Amino acid sequence: QVTLRESGPALVKPTQTLTLTCTFSGFSLSTSEMSVSWVRQPPGKALEWLALIDWDDDKYYNTSLKTRLTISRDTSKNQVVLTMTNMDPADTATYYCARDSEYNSGLYFFDYWGQGTLVTVSS
Amino acid sequence: SYELTQPPSVSVSPGQTARITCSGDALPKQSAHWYQQKAGQAPVLIIYKDTERPSGIPERFSGSSSGTTVTLTISGVRAEDEADYYCQSIDSSPTYVFGAGTKVTVL
């Protein structure tokens, strides 16, 4: 059974750095064609892809946020970590981690999602 | 940047058919996928590779593709289908792009 669960602070102050952890089970990120992404959704707005890390430890970022994002993994703990610097109230959103199990096959879609974690940016 | 265009809302009576379109210049070359998001919940994959349905997704959900437009069809709409629906594809590999979402209201 595949599960993903996001964890991190519910509230951060402007200019602070946000660190979110995705803990997953039921699959290995070392398996070929596997990847985990972070996706966010501001209240009442659409989904926005942020970053991806794949089975080969390659990393990709949303170009508009690239300078603020870092994605990493701890394969032994089945975790993917996202850091976002210089947080702003406009970054208030629910942050999801999601799996793409056919990454690099040319399809690129998310077959499993975590339940999401709401992060509010406010002083 | 690449955009996928969806109608903001669709209203449908129970038992009728709802169709949601998603347009994008690269869709003839790249597959599109659809997610259902109910209020307060995470998105759920309901269609992948334009027309394929994951296991456990009801047959009333179907997808089709024609040129630069893909369409999600919900046949025999039920009250439980009221949700936001998002299409998704990719720009450059791998930059995932989502449409703005379509709110389906069951009258």
Briefly say what this structure is.
Chain A is mostly beta strands and 123 residues long. Chain A contains no helices and eleven strands. Chain A is globular, with a radius of gyration of 14 Å.
Give a description of the structure.
The complex is a heterodimer of chains A (123) and B (107). Chain A has 123 residues and is an all-beta fold. Chain A is 0% helix and 48% strand. Chain A contains no helices and 11 strands. Chain A has strands at residues 3-7, 11-12, 18-25, 35-41, 48-54, 59-61, 69-74, 79-84, 93-100, 112-113, 117-121. In chain A, the strands form 2 sheets. In chain A, strands 2, 4, 5, 6, 9, 10 and 11 form a 7-stranded mixed sheet that branches. In chain A, β7 and β8 (79-84) form a beta hairpin. Chain A starts with a strand and ends with a strand. In chain A, 37% of the residues are buried. The mean pLDDT of chain A is 96. By secondary structure, chain B is mainly beta. Chain B is built from no helices and 9 strands. Chain B has strands spanning 9-12, 18-23, 33-37, 44-47, 61-66, 69-74, 83-90, 96-98, 102-106. In chain B, strands 1, 3, 4, 7, 8 and 9 form a 6-stranded mixed sheet that branches. Chain B is globular, with a radius of gyration of 13 Å. The interface between A and B is medium-sized, with 26 and 26 residues.
Secondary structure: elements and pairs:
The complex is a heterodimer of chains A (123) and B (107).
Chain A: E1 3-7, E2 11-12, E3 18-25, E4 35-41, E5 48-54, E6 59-61, E7 69-74, E8 79-84, E9 93-100, E10 112-113, E11 117-121
Parallel strand pairs in A: 2-11
Antiparallel strand pairs in A: 1-3, 3-8, 4-5, 4-9, 5-6, 7-8, 9-10, 9-11
Chain B: E1 9-12, E2 18-23, E3 33-37, E4 44-47, E5 61-66, E6 69-74, E7 83-90, E8 96-98, E9 102-106
Parallel strand pairs in B: 1-9
Antiparallel strand pairs in B: 2-6, 3-4, 3-7, 5-6, 7-8, 7-9
